[in-house]
Design goal:
The complex is a heterodimer of chains A (326) and B (336). Chain A has 326 residues and is of the alpha/beta class. Chain A contains eleven helices and twelve strands. Helix content of chain A is 33%, strand content 23%. Chain A has an eight-stranded mixed sheet with strand order 6-7-8-3-9-10-12-11, with helices on both faces. A four-stranded antiparallel sheet of chain A has the order 2-1-4-5. In chain A, a hairpin with a 2-residue loop joins strand 9 and strand 10. In chain A, helix 5 runs parallel beside helix 6. Helices cover 33% and strands 22% of the residues of chain B. In chain B, the strands form two sheets. In chain B, strands 6-7-8-3-9-10-12-11 form an eight-stranded mixed sheet, sandwiched between helices. In chain B, a hairpin with a 2-residue loop joins strand 9 and strand 10. Chain B is globular and about 65 Å long. Classes of the chains: A alpha/beta (326), B alpha/beta (336). Chains A and B meet through helix 6, helix 7, helix 8, helix 9 and helix 10 of A and helix 7, helix 8, helix 9, helix 10 and helix 11 of B.
């Protein structure tokens, strides 16, 4: 994928959420450091996987990329345009080129709107299509995602979870976006339906050539769909590399632990492997540990990890890592 | 039941024997056939994985064993559930209450909602101990601290007086496990206990249950939709679909000699760890059948790629295929 051009560049992105304490006089302002100084690039036509546990900031990254949250600092260059400095009306134009598929297909579709009006909503906002053109486009999209085009007048409650997610995908594709951010699109679906949706996403990418950012906590699925993978922990990037590098030669102790926690659907292989079981839970992002973020759970942590934050550096070509001991 | 069945029970006594269990729900839209005549047994010390997608009846069958089905709208229409020589379906509610929690304990899916938010975690565990084990408050408290320590909660003497909201998701699930294990049950039913948790926490919980199972020698029934999770921990597996067991057997047989097209589809839906880039997942087309209007033939007919006319007309029954008890309900298992 490296021969491709960069579609998106994220530089030193930070997103802090203030917590107000007290009702009137907030003396000390504290922050949840949801995303804390991360940088990565997304190439045209690839799928970048974003993995990490709950609270690691992966959804915040996804939302900040689309400027649904304004970042605290840092730059997001989309096709060379810095989104962070763009006024809202210009941002709205660019948004037609970047779309999102949401996690919960039950909450992301308005129950009072018909499928047809849900899918044509982006067309209403961004295009001057006539009613008939829109209707045709909607039917075309429904067919594209494997739904019956006659469903336009039905309501979301008439569909199953997997079908709803297909509707969400059709809506995201309505404007032929360059970038689609998929925020855990399959985590609320059944296993057999997950495979249907993942296959659909891959098929659409082959056909339409868009770029995906695929956010998930299910590592086996992320490995399946991604070209490169970003591993996040507590608002920071721990490791970024090609999917095979991450799976076959993980370097960071956190990545190693994550990999070994993935269930293997094969009893013989599962029994013979060495598992690294991390102790404890992910610390609070309000009060992250000093030094390396991962030091409270790291099996190889030493003194330096509690004092100095490891530098995020390029270990080998395209393989980035933040750890003192690699 | 009859004296005959009773004596049979005591000779080759598995810990739990379910036969022809049928659970239904009477709703406004019609009768939902959630569990449709399933039979299996579980020996003591054995770990059974019950696998299937949402709506396949795996949780309802577990709740039927615990007699936690609300009647009405629910109804256990037929069947027997033999546990240590007693048919649970024949017990009075009072007898059942003594058994629940003491002999059979259950851990539920959602650790966020299964603890009572207005009582301390310690109180909730002590309650079971005082009720079932006749302990005094002081004894129960000591035992609770031991249990919290056992399930790996740091500083149990301090944490015992915490409220559930002060615990993280993983810790709450640990507390639930401590509660379930408090009376040293003979059977632990774990209903998707790790679904709401992160992978690293899931690994911790699986590890913990495995360790405790070995130490205490109890039987475990692990209910899940993820064939990946059960691969490394269970001895045998029941694959359920639309309220039927469609394949059962030892774990190695299920994974290596997969027979039923649905099980094959489930396994194909999971990306394997050593797949080549660009491999397509094998997905199962379509949706599970409506449990109100069950098809009269094979329940998997509408989604099956190997179907024939015969499959629609007659429902296949479980057929044993090897000496280890591997069985499949499919007309065409020999050919596919």
């Amino acid at each position: 994928m490296s021969q491709n051009k960069r579609l998106l560049q994220v530089k030193n992105l930070k997103k802090y959420f203030p917590i107000s304490s007290g009702v009137l006089f907030n003396r000390q302002k504290r922050y949840v450091k949801a995303v804390d100084d991360i940088s990565f690039e997304v190439y045209d036509g690839e799928t970048l996987g974003l993995v990490g546990e709950t609270g690691c900031g992966k959804t915040t990254v996804a939302r900040t990329l689309l400027q649904l949250y304004r970042p605290t600092s840092g730059q997001i260059l989309f096709d060379g345009i810095n989104l962070t400095e763009l006024p809202e009306n210009e941002m709205r134009k660019i948004r037609s080129r970047m779309q999102m598929i949401f996690q919960d297909p039950y909450a992301s579709l308005n129950p009072r709107m018909t499928v047809g009006s849900i899918i044509s909503a982006p067309l209403d906002v961004h295009t001057q299509m006539s009613r008939n053109e829109k209707r045709e486009k909607v039917q075309e999209l429904l067919q594209l995602v494997g739904l019956n085009p006659d469903f336009v007048n039905r309501y979301p409650h008439e569909f199953s979870g997997g079908q709803r997610q297909r509707i969400g995908i059709a809506r995201a594709l309505a404007l032929n976006p360059d970038l689609v951010v998929c925020d855990e699109p399959i985590s609320s679906l059944d296993v057999s339906i997950q495979a249907q949706v993942v296959n659909l996403l891959e098929e659409l990418q082959n056909r339409l050539g868009m770029t995906y950012i695929f956010v998930a906590h299910d590592l086996s699925m992320v490995r399946h769909i991604s070209d490169r993978i970003v591993v996040m922990y507590l608002g920071k990037v721990m490791e970024l590399a090609d999917r095979n590098e991450i799976y076959l030669r993980p370097q960071h102790p956190y990545t190693k632990a994550l990999m070994s926690a993935v269930p293997i659907p094969n009893p013989k292989k599962a029994r013979s492997r060495q598992r690294i079981i991390l102790q404890g839970d992910i610390p609070s992002p309000i009060n992250p540990p000093k030094g390396c973020n991962f030091n409270t759970r790291c099996p190889i942590a030493q003194d330096i990890c509690f004092k100095e934050e490891p530098v995020y550096r390029e270990l080998a070509l395209g393989h980035f890592i933040a750890c003192h001991f690699v | 039941m009859t004296a005959n069945t009773l004596s049979q029970q005591s000779i080759n006594s598995p810990l739990l024997r379910v036969s022809n269990l049928q659970t239904r729900f009477h709703t406004q839209d019609g009768v939902v056939h959630a569990v449709n005549g399933i039979s299996y047994h579980l020996d003591s010390g054995e770990i059974l994985g019950v696998v299937g997608e949402s709506g396949c009846g795996k949780s309802v069958h577990a709740l039927s064993i615990m007699r936690l089905i609300q009647i009405p709208p629910g109804e256990i229409a037929d069947g027997e559930i033999w546990f240590e020589g007693r048919d649970l379906l024949k017990l009075s509610e009072n007898e059942m209450r003594h058994l629940r929690g003491r002999d059979i304990a259950m851990v539920f899916q959602d650790p966020m909602t299964s603890l009572n938010p207005v009582f301390t975690v310690g109180f909730q565990i002590c309650e079971a101990l005082m009720l079932h084990m006749n302990m005094t408050r002081k004894q129960a408290r000591e035992r609770t601290i031991e249990l919290l320590n056992l399930v790996g909660i740091p500083e149990p003497t301090k944490r015992i007086d915490n409220y559930p909201h002060q615990f993280s998701g993983g810790m709450r699930q640990r507390a639930m496990i401590a509660m379930a294990l408090s009376c040293e049950p003979k059977l632990l039913i774990a209903d998707e206990p790790t679904t709401a948790l992160d992978v690293t926490i899931q690994a911790q919980i699986i590890d913990l249950v495995m360790k405790l199972q070995k130490e205490m020698g109890m039987s475990v029934m692990w209910i899940t939709h993820d064939l990946g999770i059960v691969a490394e921990m269970v001895h045998k597996i029941n694959v359920m679909y639309a309220g039927f067991i469609i394949e059962e057997g030892l774990v190695d047989d299920i994974y290596d000699e997969t027979l039923h097209p649905y099980t094959k589809g489930l396994l194909g839906s999971l990306p394997s760890i050593d797949e080549a880039p660009g491999t397509k997942l094998v997905s199962i087309p379509g949706l599970p059948p409506d449990l109100i209007a069950l098809p009269s033939g094979c329940p998997f007919y509408a989604r099956c790629t190997y179907r024939q006319d015969h499959c629609r007309e007659e429902r296949p029954v479980l057929e044993t295929v090897n000496a280890n008890g591997h069985a499949v309900a499919c007309w065409r298992w020999r050919e596919i």
